[in-house]
Amino acid sequence: MNDPLTHFVKADVEMAVLSGFIFDNNEFFLHEFDPGLFTGDRVLVFAGIRDLVTRGVTADIVTLTSHLAGKVRASEIVMIADTPVSLNLAFHRGVLENARLLREMHTAFTKGAGMCREGAAPSEIDALVRSKITHTETFEPRSSQDLVLKTLDEITQRVMEGVEPGLKTGITRLDHIINGFLPGEFVIIAARPGVGKTSLILNMARNFGFAGYPGLLFSMEMPESQLMQRWLCDVGSVDGKYLFQGRLKKNDAVVWTKLTQAGQDIAGLPVFWDDSAHLTIDKIHARARKAKMLHGIRWIAVDYLQLVSGWGVPGQEGKAEITRQFKLMAKELDLVVIVLSQLNRNIEGRASRAPQMSDLRDAGSIEQDCDIALFPDVPERSMSGTEDDGFDMAKLYIVKTRRGRTGVIEGVRWQGHYFRFANEEGGS
Fold it and tell me: For a tag on the chain, would you pick the N or C end, based on fewer CB atoms within 10 A?
């Protein structure tokens, strides 16, 4: 036998398991088996047993031979039925699961090696390999007793340690309503261009960082150097005109002191940056998983959705898959996933500026998959944007949340010269 996959076949175990199902059909429903665990004709025998028992028909040598006539030889079924019965199906399921995983890994890595020789992009190879290897964890439902004890233990530990459950945004009224963002949540922050959504996510990232929550920020629109300059303005309360309008001079001692102090404060924050262009959802997922393993990140932010490669492809199917993957990423990696998005122009033609979910570009899949949707707005934004203007009054619309309540938060300050949304009291 020249096929290397035969090294990863446990024919004797497969036959013992099938023999156990034939001996006692009730065993079929007590264990989580699927066709991928079997090889050769034994896949057909497993499918035949499943077909019969799910219809309430006893699966034995006679009924299986009749059901599989023309597909599996009768002698093969007799040989399986005569195999000593597996007395430990749970253990043998693990053996077959390991063999299946080895087969899938061998096939995936062989295909990946071929793609390497053909010069395929590393991200395509990574996506192919991961897609070919199925998730192998056996599902075991948790009893109510186990779950309530686990939950009470988590609550007790949180109270004893004084740890808040959510990542606080720094916007006091928002945090009061939603109690911060929770792991596993997919959050959308959407606005028309120029309203300050990038500044808002930078403000939140700053707050997460100072609270000690590591995170990763993907910026496909602005280079990381521009984002850091905005952070320096925010943390150091430095007017943006000095950095973005070329007004900083050698003798501006006060400004230099503020920048130096802000740099020292920021340098120790556990926030990581990735300003790669043309990121696919697969690349974002892979990099988030790596950052979770290496740095224990608690959140990621993506600026912004419409720049994720594949979003511009006509049709809704691809867009729905991207937002679905963001939600699955949040749950799988136990992260807060915050994604910025643009609103369409419909809002500009209405008498009321109050945004709606339908104002999102390609709103269908976003509305379905996100847990929280926040729409910032600055109704009467100043044109000059310097510290002499003080601030503008902003609003933050909670358009969707799976907990708390929706509505509008008023009294938020937009301090454009600092690239900062701040509480009404003046704090950041």
Answer: N
Predicted TM-score of the model (pTM): 0.65
By C-alpha distance, which of 243, 267, 249, 264 is closest to 419?
A: 243
- What residue numbers bound the domain in which 217 lies? 165-422
Q: Residue 413 in contact with residue 424, Cβ under 8 Å?
A: yes
Q: How far apart are CA 105 and CA 133, in angstroms?
A: 6
> What is 99-154 written as a DSSP string?
HHHHHHHHHHHHHHHHHHHTT--HHHHHHHHHHHS---PPP-PPPHHHHHHHHHHH
Same domain, 8 and 90: yes
Could you tell me the mean pLDDT of each successive run of 10 residues in the chain, 428 residues long? 68 89 83 82 90 85 91 90 85 85 84 85 73 55 76 75 77 86 91 83 91 91 85 83 74 79 86 86 84 90 85 71 86 91 72 70 73 84 50 83 83 83 64
Give residue 296's region: left, alpha or beta (phi > 0; psi -120 to 50): left
- Apex CA 12: angle with CA 7 and CA 16, to 5°? 145
Q: Does residue 336 form part of some domain?
A: yes
**Same domain membership, residue 180 and residue 117:** no
Provide the pLDDT for residue 338: 94
Nearest to 174 by CA among 387, 419, 417, 372: 372
Q: How far apart are CA 148 and CA 150, in angstroms?
A: 5
Same domain, 93 and 189: no
CB-based contacts of 394: which residues, under 8 Å, 6+ apart?
196, 376, 377, 378, 379, 412, 413, 414, 421
Looking at the fold, whether 124 and 176 belong to one and the same domain comes out as no
